[in-house]
Structure formats: structure tokens, C-alpha cells
Amino acid sequence: MALEAIQEVTQAEAQAKAQCEAAALQAKQQLAQAQKQARQILEQARMDAQAQTRQMMTQAETQAAQQTQQALAEAEKDCQALKEEARGRLDQAARLIVEKVVNR
């Protein structure tokens, strides 16, 4: 009977060791899988951030182009107004020049 008890204990120890090794292997596999998923999530987040950055850059460029066009249109309008004002004074300036030349 003692031999049977020793065999049972030996068998129980072997089973416990096998279960422990299996649990360790399973834990390693789960860790590897979790790390793989974390890398995938990180890569997806990086790609999403890049896409969002590109979209924001495109929007900023579009907005800058619109603001540039508005500024150019405003400058053109101001320039035309100054030209009109100068044309209006051209006759007066010509008369002043003629007067100064004639009165010398």
C-alpha cells in the first residue's frame, strides 16, 4: 500500500508539474498575443494620427489659400481705389506743374 501511495504522490507531482508547465506556456502565449494586439493597436493609432494630420494640413492649406485670395482681392481693390484717386488728381497735378513752369 505504501508503494501505491508513493506512486500516487509521484503521479500527482508529475501532473502538477505538467499543469504548471502548461499554465506557464499558456501565460507566455497570452502575453505574446497581448503584445501583438498592442502593437497592432499602436500601429493603427499611428496611421490614424497620420491621416488626421494630413487632413488637418490639407484644411489649413485650403484655409490659407482662401485667406491669401481674400487678401489679394482686398489689396487689388485698394490698389484700384488708389489709382482712381490718383487719376482724379492727375489733371490738378498737371495744372500745378504747368503753372510752376509758366510762372518761372
Keywords:
single chain, 104 residues, mainly alpha
Q: Please state the average pLDDT score.
A: 92
Strands, total number: 0
Assembly form of the protein:
single chain
Give the structural class. Answer: mainly alpha
Poorly predicted parts: none
CA-based shape: rod-shaped
Total count of helical runs of at least 4 residues: 1
Strand percent estimate: under 5%
| Straight-line distance between termini | 146 Å
| Radius of gyration using CA atoms only | 44 Å
- Secondary-structure element order, N to C: H
Major β-sheet profile = none
Describe the structure.
By secondary structure, the chain is an all-alpha fold. The chain is 97% helix and 0% strand. It is built from one helix and no strands. It has one helix at 2-102. The longest helix is centred in the middle third of the chain and has 101 residues, at 2-102.
